[in-house]
């Protein structure tokens, strides 16, 4: 199995949700962000870094008791790329790949993560990324090959993740998975739909 790390992106303001911090909204008795964090830890695939930003103190408190590293991104308002870079910087440099999870995707499970990791370990040659798809739509989390994409990831700017880097690349593997990989929570209605 390749050496992997996991980054939980939990720094966004979630402005489309309303005034209350989105990642702290309860689902099944736990804050949204804790679902993703627990999935990352249960997978046992490697060290987990949670990148905090907006509402850092409160979101961080929702992760109390979990064996992960918390990193606060002071530039979170400059976009997703800054949080991704902060998470990458907090992980050991020798890692082969990084699984990137979003804090607002509570239906992503440890099983999703291990399926992506298994696909990465079996691929020869190793792809630039393993991307889950459902119904023809790319989802999350994604597994990024740090050795192939490291320089490009370091150069990301603005409010973008790795999606733009992966568009059009022939060495990206799309892996069909269930609807959980496309279910993010952006609005109260979106949260209600998952309940």
Q: How many separate structural domains?
A: 1
End-to-end Cα distance: 35 Å
Specify the biggest β-sheet: 8 strands, mixed
Looking at the structure, what is the overall shape?
globular
Which sequence of SSEs, written as H and E, runs from N to C? EEEHEHEHEHEEEHHEH
Query: If you compute it from the alpha carbons, what radius of gyration comes out, rounded to the nearest whole angstrom?
Result: 15 Å
* Helix residue percentage: 25-40%
- How big a fraction of the residues is strand? 15-25%
Category from helices, strands and their pairing: alpha/beta
Mean pLDDT, all residues: 91
Within the CATH hierarchy, at the fold level, what is the topology?
Answer: Spore Coat Polysaccharide Biosynthesis Protein SpsA, Chain A
Number of helices: 7
**What's the level 1 CATH class?**
Alpha Beta
* CATH architectural name: Alpha-Beta Complex
Low-pLDDT stretches are none
Strand tally: 10
CATH superfamily: Spore Coat Polysaccharide Biosynthesis Protein SpsA, Chain A
Q: How would you portray this structure in words?
A:
- The protein starts with a strand and ends with a helix.
- The chain has one domain: Spore Coat Polysaccharide Biosynthesis Protein SpsA, Chain A.
- The chain is built from 7 helices and 10 strands.
- Strands 1, 4, 5, 6, 7, 8, 9 and 10 form an 8-stranded mixed beta sheet that branches. Strands 2-3 form a two-stranded antiparallel ribbon.
- With 195 residues, the chain is an alpha/beta fold.
- The longest helix has 13 residues, at 110-122.
- The mean pLDDT is 91.
